[in-house]
Here is the input.
Amino acid sequence: MNKKKNVPQKGAAKKWSEQLKELGNQPPPQDIVDRLNGEKKEEKKIAQPRNPSHDVEA
Amino acid sequence: MQVLRSLDDLSDYLKNHDCKDGCFADTGFLYAVSYQDDRLHNIASQVLDVLAEHEIPIHANVISRMEFIDLIFRKQITLGAIRLFDSLKPTIASKNLFNLLKDIRDKNTASQRENRSYKIDEGRLKKLRKELSQVLEIMSWKKFCKTYSGKMLVNEWTIMEEEIGLNFVEVMDGGISEEITSPLRWSDMADMMGEHGLRGPDAMILNLFTNSRFPLLITTDGDFEFCLDDQLLFAKDKAIFHLS
Here is the structure.
């Protein structure tokens, strides 16, 4: 029985090589770069929940 | 046996021969199709378009498939290593890692000057894994690989094989199939290695090609031409297209 075979599509080389190029052009993971460069990631300042006791009037 | 050397030769051959069963291709051709920095990328892309016009399926064996995936993985890690090097300060604590990445970047630059596509060898790949895992931890190495190769070797791979028109031939020792019309024997392959001085994977391709119904082999490897004087090996209507 004949299996259905894959047949090349026109322009497939361009499409595939562009895909690989894009993948290779990505920046490296930022945390790896920061840690290797000895830079600690700055902790985000997150708004603290308000202390309800401050609202209480003396 | 004919040797085809130009796109015109190839087109003429395909017009005058029945190649609907498909052709055979080696890893060098598949790699050239994949990377724009390979010196044969343009001609390989054009060959693929000619095969597309004539609707000729491409076949490779499982060894070529493994070699091809391995080359792609090593090339992607090479590209990642260069990107990482470009992002680092020369003052980083690990001089070993910095020097290794620089060495990879320099080798890539030297290869580009010679129009060659550089990919790290197994030794450098292992060293890079060791250095990144030691300086950071193994998870960083995995994250790095995931960025530059990741699931591409699974997800996009299947689509690529369909679009490039790749099919794989797998036959056990002494077996035949729809495509392999004479029994395929390891002993014949080993004999070709000794007789023609071919490496194992090349002898395997040649053994498959000579025992197959495929009339055409597409290769970037000039070594196959050394075997052409062996009239017993090749049927008259078979041809090799040598990209160079």
